[in-house]
Amino acid sequence: MSYGRFAQVYDQLMSDVPYDEWVSFTKNRLHESSIVVENVADLGAGTGEITLRLDKEGYKMTGVDVSEEMLSIAHQKSIQHQSSIRWLQMDITNMNTSSTFDAVVCYCDVVNYITEIHQVQAFFHNAYQLLTPGGTFIFDVHSTGYVQDFLANQTFGTVTDDISYIWFCEEGDRPYSVSHDLTFFVREGNQYERFDELHYQRTFSVETYVGYLQETGLKVRSIHGDFSDENGYNEESQDRIFFVCEKPYK
After folding, report:
1. Which UniProt keywords apply (predicted)?
2. Do 71 and 52 contact (CB within 8 A), yes or no?
């Protein structure tokens, strides 16, 4: 997938996303860590919105993404904010780094783009390898109920002066999967440029994710729904499920 044009409009499209809720949830969970958290990796960092916010909170951040275009925008932001974030271009299911971190986070639908079980396993393995003993791994996914009841076979759209889109969301051919067919119209002077995107996402049950996390060697510390600090979730009524895991001491 080419992220060139999409990366340029990504922040406009995501302007209403509650990034501060991710940051607040992260801080609360990291305060519960068995070790002092200083170095944090943000996997699937995109244009760096969450990475930058965590950097402002005092964490030493590394942002990782497969898209050169996304990372270019993130890097420019970090220069403007005079931050010392390190940016790495890597596929989070096939990482090659000797760096280790006190915590690893992965948010905002990133894991739902990992649609094959063997890739999910590889991703969990990479997260395990990145963590120091006692380190925390946090990620979120769409709930199965959200995919089935809110996304599948729905149409969404918006119109503004600068950017408009229509989004067809079709049920996929595998359980809890959806295909996103998006058409954008972006204002360029007095004209509008059209471009199209096709995205595919899939989620799995909480039990499936837990099984593969445990198989990797990670301890599931708590599971949360929709940014709640309470340990507990409902796959049918809550949209987003958060997993908080720990790499055990040997």
Report:
1. Methyltransferase, Transferase
2. no
